[in-house]
Structures are given as C-alpha cells and as structure tokens.
Amino acid sequence: MADKANVARRMAAIQPFYVMALLARARELESEGRDIVHMEIGEPDFETPAPITAAGIEALRQGHTQYTPARGLLALRQAISVFYKTEHNVVVDPERIIITPGSSGALQLLMSTLINPGDQLLMADPGYPCNRNFVRLVEGEPFSIPVAAETGYQLTHSHLQQYWSSRSRAVLVASPSNPTGTLIASDEMAQMAQFVQQRGGHLLVDEIYHGLVYGTRAETALAISDELFVINSFSKYFGMTGWRLGWLVAPLVYVPALERVAQNIFLSASTPAQYAALAAFLPETRLILEERRCIFQQRRDYLLPALRQLGFDIPVTPEGAFYLYANCSRFSDDSEEFCRRLLEEAGVAVTPGKDFGHQDPSRHLRFAYTTSLERLRLGVARIEQFLTTL
Amino acid sequence: MADKANVARRMAAIQPFYVMALLARARELESEGRDIVHMEIGEPDFETPAPITAAGIEALRQGHTQYTPARGLLALRQAISVFYKTEHNVVVDPERIIITPGSSGALQLLMSTLINPGDQLLMADPGYPCNRNFVRLVEGEPFSIPVAAETGYQLTHSHLQQYWSSRSRAVLVASPSNPTGTLIASDEMAQMAQFVQQRGGHLLVDEIYHGLVYGTRAETALAISDELFVINSFSKYFGMTGWRLGWLVAPLVYVPALERVAQNIFLSASTPAQYAALAAFLPETRLILEERRCIFQQRRDYLLPALRQLGFDIPVTPEGAFYLYANCSRFSDDSEEFCRRLLEEAGVAVTPGKDFGHQDPSRHLRFAYTTSLERLRLGVARIEQFLTTL
User: Fold this and answer.
1) Taking the model in full, what pTM does it have?
2) Of the candidates B17, B65, B240, which has its C-beta nearest A240's C-beta?
C-alpha cells in the first residue's frame, strides 16, 4: 500500500502523453545550453491580445473576484450570441450557451450529462487524445474509427452507417481537427447530424480551432441544426490558453442538466477570465487576431511544402488549426524513436503519432507551427541535415 | 427527442441545489426594490485581498497568460510547502502538491483516480452536497452516514467500524465542515486514518475552511499521516473564490496517476490565478486575512447566541467555516417552506437542510454569516418578528 498506488481500474487505460516527456527532455537540453526548435507544442506562441489582458486587469481593479452564476456571465453569453450572428449569421439564444473552464470543461459536462456506463462515443482516430479519457472517466467506451486521407482524416456519414450500433450513444467530431488540421464539409456534417438524430443519439462538434482557418471559411455546425452540441474555446484563436475559458452551445432542453453538473463540478468558470473575454469580440481585438491568423497561414504555407519536399507524406492539405500530420515511413517505422533522435541529435521537438491514437501511430508525426517562421526554417534545415544521417 | 432531454441515468440522482433557486428569487425580489438579508451564500463577502489582486494584475502585465505544467507552478507548490512548515510545522514535499481549479478540481482528480464503479465513498450526512455527485459522475456510490450532535456532526472511528464494508473504498471528511462548522479532533482523525489504511482504503480530508477557525487551532491532517489525501483551496480563507484555485496533497506514489488525470481534464489551473496566489502567503496578505478571520469570529459570536435565543437549536458550537446548522423544529417541520416564507415575508434568505443530505433535512437550516454584523442584526430582528407571525 505504501509503495504501490491502489488506483481505480480505469487508470490502466489513461496513459501519460508522450509529448509531456518529450517537452520535459527538451527543457532539460535547453537548460544545458542546447537550442531546441519547438514544433511539439499545441499552444499559440502569442500572448493574450492586449485589449483582452487590459480588460482582465480592469476587472481585477474593480474587484470582480467572486463567483459568477454556474452558466457564466450573462454579458459574455450575449457577446458570444452576437458573435455567432455577425460572424456566421446564425441565431444562437444566449440561454443555450454555457461558459466553461476551457473546452475541457465543456467536454466534461457533455460526458457527465450524456454518457452512460458502457455507452460508446464514436470518434476519429487519429484525434485529440484527451477525448478518449473524458469518456473513460464516466465509464463510457471510446470507440475509435480509423480515418485516412481519403476522407480528409475525418468521420463521414458512411463511417457512421458502418460503425453505429445499439451501444453507440454519441459521435464526437472536430473541425478543424487536431492533429490533422482538416475540416468537415457542411453537407457531410449535415448528413451526420441527421443520421445521429434519427437514432436518438448526440452529435458533439469540437470547433475550438474554428477561427484558425486558411484559404477557406469554416461554417459553424450550429448553422445546420439546433439539435447538436458545439464546443468552443477562448484558448486557441482568441489566445487565452492559460486563462482556462471555453463555452458550450447545447439544445435548450439539455441546458438544465448541464447546468446542474456545472454547479457541482465547477461552481463557475474563472471570473477574471470571463470579464477579460468580454474584450475578445472588440474590433481592435479582432484585428490583432486576424493578423495572427495570417501569420499562422504564412507558417503553414511555408512548412507544408517544405516538409513534403523533404519526403514526409502529407496527403491532405490542412486548412485549419496549427498542425501538420505527416507520414514519416520513408524514414522510419518507429516514430517515437525518430522523435527521440530528432530531439537529441538535431534539436527539433515534434510529437510522435502515439499521442493521437492507435491508427498506424508508429509511422506518423505531428508538427505544430506554433513558433516563428524563422525558427520553422531553422527546424526544417536541421531536419534535412538529420535525414542525411539516417 | 426534440422536446425531452435524453440524458445519462446518473442525472436522475443529481439534483439542483435549492439555494440556487432561492438566490434567484432573492435577486428577483431585490430587483423589485425589496431589501434582502443574505444568509444563504457560501462565499465570503470580501473581495480578494489587495496584495493578491495586485500580483494578479502584475502577472497579466508581464504576459503570464499561457498554460502552466499540469501540476501547477513549481513556485506556488513550493510556497504551499513552506506554508505547511511555518504554519503547521509539517514537512510536505512540493512534489506531493498538485494545483487544481478550485478544490472542486481536486475532488474530481481524486474520484477519477481512486474510485471504481460501485465503490463506496463514505461521508457524513449532513455534508457538502457536491461530494455525493463527484462520486456519482465516476459511477461510484456515495454512502452517507447519518451524524448527529453527539459526535459534533462528524464521522468517527466508531462510524467507520460500523459502516465500512468490502465495498468501501474511501472515506471523505471535512474539518471544518460545511454546513455544521465543526472540527475533527486530531486523535479521532488519527484513529480514522489508521483504520482506513489497515483496510487498504483511502482517507480524504477536506480542509478548505481550514484557516477560518475560531477560539482554537486546527491541525492539518498531514501532521498525522503521509498516507492520506488533503484537499484545500484558495477560495474561502484566502478570499479567491472567483479565481478558481485550490490544491491537493497526495501520497507521493499517487502523484503520477493524479497528474495524468489533470493533464486530461484540466491541462492546467488558471495561470493568472496561480501567479496571484503566490502573494497569498505574504505577511501583508496574512495580516488582512487575520483581520477577516476576526471579523468572521465576531459574527459567529453574535449570531450563535442570537439564534439560540430565538429558539433555534444549535447543540454544538461551530468552531470554523462561516456556517451555523440549526434545528428549526420548534417552528416548523418543513424547512423548505419555512425558508420560502422567511424570504418572501421577512426578506431573509437562509438555506434549507435539503441541500445538505437526507438526515432530517426538513427540520434544519443553514445560516451563513457571510454578511456584515449590521446586516446580521437586521436579519435576526426580521426573523424574530417573522417567528411571531407563525
């Protein structure tokens, strides 16, 4: 008992993220004086936009340090509603919006409210690794569906026809996706929404990378149906990672149950963060965010052909987020070892496929373009040199 | 489907808190011009102490807006470790400390990491209502043990001998307790710790009201054993409710599993809040907190005899937190209706027993002294008048 942890059975399935160990090793090397190009980190390299931070500071000056209602500040829910109208021309009743501690909080609310023990949640593999574990915590079953380049690494209506069973309870999709950066077309989303609804299930749509889309426009799934759930976040596009703030849009009839869970597990989201986020929709903030989006696009437009030229296979052009998911089998069938050596020998940190699922992870890598163009160029040069040593 | 929510089975057991509806009604009456004395709110009526807020503002100015490690800032974990040494003369390795989004986050980590489906978590009734629901979310079973004045409304070693079974996995106690404000004596805690450890179970100790103790000193359970888990918070004593920040102290061997869950469900606690909390242990902050503690004590010292004199039965003198749990059966056997009328007719909001468990709730009320002495006097005068109308 004293020397061995007596943990719940589900913990056996909840593995540490390899990227954390990799990041720790990268920091260790840096502390020894090595220069490391970070292409492993899933966080924008920008501080929170100044108007948002200023609003946070002002909120603290005014003493806004007590709990808000569990669903969040009405003013913020209204601002999000206006955002959907002006940005997407979709009417979303503020009563359907719940403010959460990051999109992580939204996912927890959904799993707790919707998933019974043994219920299956269908999701794409590769995908965001925490999703599987959110389901496990409520004793549901993550059901991973292998996806490939043919469908843009996304679930489709056909996948649902093939894999939906009596044990299926919900489908979780992400558009844009982590780690592949790909989108789901509106007509495909509409077909999936209809399919799931006809079976009395739930469609959960992760739109947390929604503002970071390049060369096209992403439509919110809320334009398609009022019966689906949308998860969003102030972290990525709005640059507020460390504040821990996101939101959830739910069909109105589910709001009371979601609110009850929120009252129990959060009480409320961070109050200073909520006041700060009121400034996220200001024109001056949006200008900054649009500049940043263009910078991310420039990085993608550099990195994608550069990696392809080196021999990494990226069959689908990622249109969003800040990730490239590459097949490295020309160089290695052991992406974890490849990443280890790339870090140790060349000073470049990237994430191996194993963090994203069980679909051929040993032949895949995720490159994040969350560092400057200059650093990306240096990274690519180092990788090129490294590949000649293999 | 469209007009009825299709939620998970566990939601049937997760009830809304009556106090939320009561608070909403109180706000409604206020918006109509009524003056309401609030004795229902479980949140200090003080803003965050100025040095903490100033540290938060400074952190934002310096751009500390990105994720921290999942376990939290090392500097904050070290500051908490020093606090245990100077305040309690207990050595707590910073490696055993995990920073969480409120103590709610700490409870979630514990349930997810320790409790299997069907496992029982033993707890006192009356108690903090969310505790039951944290267990339900991971499909464990909250096992409520009725406690009474004889044991200071706390679990004892004898209770554990009586109720521990092969299905028991852990015991959760709170000292001071919500709603009763009572403490657990060190020798009783030590006996419970030994009992649970001998059976391979876990003792979880909620110390979130720990700094708010009057006329005595509360020892941390960490002085008793390294094998138990302690939950604490910056919310109540440190006055940081809306920032959502707490911490967990665990046996070292459990830290990797807890960290894995934290990586999945939080990523990290709020970064600005963590930097702000570094100022919570400064001498100038502690002076403010000590002043506030004295104010709470004055309120208790006024309210306790005043309510007893009116005829409410409060058999055990509460030594901590900011709650009085009173038997109202001299006036009513329907505390919910009593609360409703007290609010509507006398303009005083208090919480009925039903929010705290199943142990004779209809004959109990919780009074919170989270408002000024002047307002408490007004509240008592109104209650006195109201009682004459019954």
Assistant:
1) 0.96
2) B65
